Amino acid sequence: SELLSAIDLLSVSNLLNYFGRQDAVDNVRVHPILFQKGTTKVALYGMGSMRDERLNRMWQGKKVRFLRPEQDMNGGARNRGGDEDDDEEEESRDWFNIFTLHQNRDLGRGSKNCVHESMIPEWMDLVVWGHEHECNIEPAESLVGTFR
């Protein structure tokens, strides 16, 4: 049987948009929600909470993949089936990529009990950590320096 949480019930009732949930525990594919107004394009990626050790092991085993937006002929966008490894650099520069995740950050918790910043794709422009116990309301530059 499938486990349900209160957030699942709110989602199926159409009271909130619950994105970032992963149904597969051995292969994670993160699909963006695409927003476009005029020339502004935002790709919002989300990852809900998973056991830190499992997610860390999947990331090390290259089983976490991010799907990138694809341009269509009319200038709009849609999710394309390609992975982060595809060479679509010019296309991807059009998008401001935001990644929200609900996981422990590497702050001395051990090498397997967290998500390391180096695991997150370098093409992400902004990362929002949602499982912080400290109240950090000011943005901070990445420890590895690849995104801000």
Structure description:
The chain has 148 residues and is an alpha/beta fold. The protein has a 4-stranded mixed beta sheet, with no helix packed on it. A two-stranded parallel ribbon has the order 1-4. The longest helix is centred in the middle third of the chain and has 9 residues.
Strand content: 15-25%
Which descriptor suits the 3D outline?
Answer: globular
Q: Can you count the helices?
A: 3
Q: What is the number of strand segments? A: 8
Query: How do the strands line up in the largest sheet?
Result: 2-3-7-8
Topology readout:
Elements: H1 6-12, E1 28-30, E2 33-37, E3 40-47, H2 52-60, E4 64-66, E5 69-71, E6 77-79, H3 89-93, E7 96-101, E8 126-129
Parallel strand pairs: 1-4, 3-7, 7-8
Antiparallel strand pairs: 2-3, 5-6
Short description:
By secondary structure, the chain is of the alpha/beta class. It is 14% helix and 24% strand. A 4-stranded mixed sheet has the order 2-3-7-8, with no helix packed on it. It has a two-stranded parallel ribbon with strand order 1-4. A two-stranded antiparallel sheet has the order 5-6.
Key traits:
148 residues, alpha/beta, two-stranded parallel ribbon
